[in-house]
Amino acid sequence: MSAELGTLLVACPDRKGIVATLAQVLYGHGANILDADQHTDPVAALFFQRIRFDLSTLTTDRTSLETGIREVAERFAMDWRIAYGHQVRRVAIFASKQEHCLYDLLIRYRAGELPCEVAMVISNHADGAPIAKHFDVPFHHLPVDANDKPAQEAAAIELVEAARIDLIVLARYMQILSPAFVGRFGSRIINIHHSFLPAFVGANPYRQAYVRGVKLIGATSHYVTNELDEGPIIEQATIRCSHRDSVDDLVRKGRDLEKVVLASAVRWHLEDRILVYAGKTVVFD
Amino acid sequence: MSAELGTLLVACPDRKGIVATLAQVLYGHGANILDADQHTDPVAALFFQRIRFDLSTLTTDRTSLETGIREVAERFAMDWRIAYGHQVRRVAIFASKQEHCLYDLLIRYRAGELPCEVAMVISNHADGAPIAKHFDVPFHHLPVDANDKPAQEAAAIELVEAARIDLIVLARYMQILSPAFVGRFGSRIINIHHSFLPAFVGANPYRQAYVRGVKLIGATSHYVTNELDEGPIIEQATIRCSHRDSVDDLVRKGRDLEKVVLASAVRWHLEDRILVYAGKTVVFD
Amino acid sequence: MSAELGTLLVACPDRKGIVATLAQVLYGHGANILDADQHTDPVAALFFQRIRFDLSTLTTDRTSLETGIREVAERFAMDWRIAYGHQVRRVAIFASKQEHCLYDLLIRYRAGELPCEVAMVISNHADGAPIAKHFDVPFHHLPVDANDKPAQEAAAIELVEAARIDLIVLARYMQILSPAFVGRFGSRIINIHHSFLPAFVGANPYRQAYVRGVKLIGATSHYVTNELDEGPIIEQATIRCSHRDSVDDLVRKGRDLEKVVLASAVRWHLEDRILVYAGKTVVFD
Amino acid sequence: MSAELGTLLVACPDRKGIVATLAQVLYGHGANILDADQHTDPVAALFFQRIRFDLSTLTTDRTSLETGIREVAERFAMDWRIAYGHQVRRVAIFASKQEHCLYDLLIRYRAGELPCEVAMVISNHADGAPIAKHFDVPFHHLPVDANDKPAQEAAAIELVEAARIDLIVLARYMQILSPAFVGRFGSRIINIHHSFLPAFVGANPYRQAYVRGVKLIGATSHYVTNELDEGPIIEQATIRCSHRDSVDDLVRKGRDLEKVVLASAVRWHLEDRILVYAGKTVVFD
Fold it and tell me: Which of A88, B101, C166, D270 has the most crowded CB, counting CB atoms within 10 A?
């Protein structure tokens, strides 16, 4: 994202005149709208908008612009946030023994697909160390002691906060985070579940799928909440399978889904495309 | 299916020599194997095979061939069945108010996609009558009286048995069949459920999908059992949706899935491609 | 589409202030913006927007609103058009011997999926007559005389113009339209081609696909131009095939694609979601 | 693949008795058939079969078994080949500057998805060296001198032959191989083309797709022949795109397709699932 870009996200009760008012404020400060996407939920009577604008033509400054937006936001009872291209988001990847999602994110990161800085990899297994090293990303090995899980979480929190992490990505991280941890990082933790939620919640979804004899398997990326596998869904995909597929085949096929579905969620989050409300997401594409 | 075709389906405990023995029996009677598809479930240690063969070159006759197969079947403890191309299967379509699956099946039937005779349409609504008439298929209106549902089922059973129906297709039929009815027609009832099972079982799956905020909706065709929405799955498909889709949009998108997923299941059943075991299906394609 | 809805489509050279200016004009007349979707092509430096608005809150009238828009349009060198919900578009379906797309469009029409009036079916074969009759749509049989094709086209033009047709849908219509015909109806003719264009242009695409041994077949809906199969693409889809599929199997599988891909294009056209430029389309979804 | 597995692939004119005869020969030597897949091309009147069998139960030995098969093969004019699980295939990956397919293959290789030994990576760019090193695979940098391309090919041939390579995978290798090179390695070179062939042959397919305004992009893996982009297709996939996608977006989306489509082709080749005839493939899944 160019340093001269701004992105404004708003959510508010639906009312007449919102689009025109916001456009007018931006125009009044000399910000050129590049892109404006919008959604109205007629059932909930809510309005959502994402506006990307060019800052290089600002006739005032960022502070004045934000003051202007704040006034409008109060009038329309808006939740809003603004992001600037020069503020690079900092990401921590949490991994366990399985390495396909970890590799995938780091390869995309290096290819420039993910507008962020991957500041660290944290894992409860040592296996990821050479991978992180290969991509020049700091690695922290935090093994989980069955008797003292809180200690590991405390160490993780310290690392994450010291590094001012904006987003935590659970790349097939096999530990369940405590309510305290989840509460601390709110809508800033993205997980990948290896099924088409809400089918096959919980453990061993590929085995569950095999036993049920489904003809498609899926993967789901979602924000983490304290209801396991119940968080707002960001992206999903499925792939065909058949009676010929063993559980191992399902696992292999599923890996390809997991990588793509997780990477899309992370990219959309970093591009400020996602709004959460009522337990689900609006994803502006 | 040409009148000169035979299809043999077998299922048995996995053992050495099954393929060779069956091939030898068919060859010994002059039946030329056109196609042989096979599956071994290593977990359950079961063997499945579908063999299509040409009868026009038989050097004995059908009775002798079946005797030969029966001997082999006993030796290997096989479940088996044989179908001949000249025996056209008779189908009854059960429908309710929604007409898209009914239309779809009848159009495919007329286009020659479904090797069967659609012998009747039964509906608890009168709306389907002109549709059945347009395709020259007998129509029976069996309205459901809330106080006397068994009477309607009894009437349906009488019609189905009098017409020697081989397969009942529930084309968005909105009544739940009694255990007695299901027991009577065993694995000869195919239903379409408008979700990606096992997600969103029960009523109003599109509304459930909307509330949960999924990014794909699905449809599932399955054999009917007395556990609602739990029968062996035959085919499934999904389609993308987003926050922009209202429940009505999901319903509209879902119709396209339902038609294709139900029609595939019906065609595969009629082509003797499906074996059921352990609550799931082997579908030889 | 509700009678109180308006839809404005604009295309113009990209410039600062367009979004704000248009929003301001609509707001100034009391029109409430329900939906605004926008696209900027950075290569061509062009701006595109689709705005849906509520007319019931207009404080002036349609004429004043259009005068306001016209002034803005001149200032920004815009191409623009406006559609109102009370103006129901009139559609003519052209068909030949194959009936699956014809059936599909008429079923969707009756189900309320297509906001239009299907005013007539024209075919060079008589087979479609009972289908049109079943759906209460006028049918015109215009057989093509090899020696006098222009006469048929002249008759078609007369019918279409007399009925003030807004959109012609070629539902597997197997005659090539003359440049004169195409010129007359501009971007108001939608065709379905049974391949993934630009692969397999011309005749017998399924046979071409079979010979080439592709692993997917496709279908493409597009606006008709005088370069055969070269018109702006509206929608495409593909489905898996394999060595097992005969040409007939490809035809059967392809039908399902053709129906869905053509119906989407027709619906999007009727909902004023499509803008054409540089030989391609912007489809606002 | 277990060391005790054998795979027999045959192709011959279609004739009565082939299936039974082959099954009988294997059974006679004590080889237990685990899996038999078969295809008859009724147009070309050709028969194809893949049989996987268990060698641990052989009552004779491999030489006798092959003698038996050879006799049958002569009688039926069969092309045939046999592969044993203990013979691990040796693979060379050719790469250029783009690294996504190279990474993908090496990650799958390490995860055990590809039954082979990746014996070397050859690249005309040095960038791949640390990647190969990370996965402990020998790397050879063979830069292409515009004035002396034959020298690089000669060096590659020497490396490949010295290492007794069974399969060459072109993982976005951007040099065109000479007819001499292609002739030497016959059907043992697999390439990935970044379009849905036969659409967009030649250079810059994503740019071509952008200009044409297609709504799906694709990728195709195929065996290499001396007709550029005309070799037998092994696998294809497509993904949706829209007017919003720049050429860079298409490139990014395409990478995900390319990885999956190339890896499937390589895996199927290594599992002896592919037969080539008449410029296309039979892929037994």
Answer: B101
Sorted by where each starts, the structural domains of chain D and their CATH numbers stand as: 5-84 (3.30.70.260), 89-283 (3.40.50.170)
Both structure tokens of A13: 């009760």
The values of phi and psi at residue B31, to 5°, are -80, 125
Angle at D216 between CA D176 and CA B237, to 5 degrees: 120
Kindly give the parts of chain C with pLDDT less than 50. Answer: none
CA distance D252 to C116: 39
Give the closest of C100, C252, C260 to B107, CB-based. C100
Residues A7-58 have pLDDT tens digits of 999 999 999 889 889 999 999 999 988 888 899 888 899 999 999 999 998 9
pLDDT score, position D187: 85
3-state secondary structure chain C: CCCCEEEEEEEEECCCCHHHHHHHHHHHCCCEEEEEEEEEECCCCEEEEEEEEECCCCCCCHHHHHHHHHHHHHHHCCEEEEEECCCCCEEEEEECCCCHHHHHHHHHHHCCCCCCEEEEEEECCHHHHHHHHHCCCCEEECCCCCCCHHHHHHHHHHHHHHCCCCEEEEECCCCCCCHHHHHHHHHHEEEEECCCCCCCCCCCHHHHHHHHCCCEEEEEEEECCCCCCCCCEEEEEEEECCCCCCHHHHHHHHHHHHHHHHHHHHHHHHCCCEEEECCEEEECC
**pLDDT tens across D239-265, in order?**
999 999 999 999 999 999 999 999 999
Interchain CB distance below 8 Å, D256 and A260: yes
Mean pLDDT of chain A: 94
If DSSP states are collapsed to H, E and C, what string results for chain B? CCCCEEEEEEEEECCCCHHHHHHHHHHHCCCEEEEEEEEEECCCCEEEEEEEEECCCCCCCHHHHHHHHHHHHHHHCCEEEEEECCCCCEEEEEECCCCHHHHHHHHHHHCCCCCCEEEEEEECCHHHHHHHHHCCCCEEECCCCCCCHHHHHHHHHHHHHHCCCCEEEEECCCCCCCHHHHHHHHHHEEEEECCCCCCCCCCCHHHHHHHHCCCEEEEEEEECCCCCCCCCEEEEEEEECCCCCCHHHHHHHHHHHHHHHHHHHHHHHHCCCEEEECCEEEECC
Return the pLDDT at A1.
58
Closest approach of D263 to chain B, Cα-based (Å): 23
CA distance D215 to chain B (A): 15
Contact state of D107 with A103 under an 8 Å Cβ cutoff: yes
Catalytic pick among C104, C229, C245, C272: C229
Test the C interface: residue of B101, B110, B134 with most C CBs within 10 Å = B134
With an 8 Å Cβ cutoff, are D43 and C196 in contact?
no
C-alpha radius of gyration, chain A, whole number: 21
Asked if B199 reaches chain A (Cβ–Cβ under 8 Å), the answer is yes
Interface of C with B in 102-161 (CB under 8 A): 103, 107, 111, 113, 130, 134
What's chain B's average pLDDT? 94
CB pairs under 8 A between C and D: 88
Q: How many helices (H) and strands (E) does chain D have?
A: 8, 13
Q: What is the ipTM of this complex?
A: 0.93
Indicate which of B16, B19, B26, B47 best probes the interface with D, i.e. most D CBs within 10 Å of its own CB: B19
Contacts of A278 in chain B (CB under 8 A): 213
* Contact residues, D window 203-262, toward C, CB-based 8 Å cutoff: 211-216, 218, 232-238, 242-244, 246
Listed as ranges, residues in chain D with pLDDT below 50 are none
Rg (chain D; Cα; Å): 21
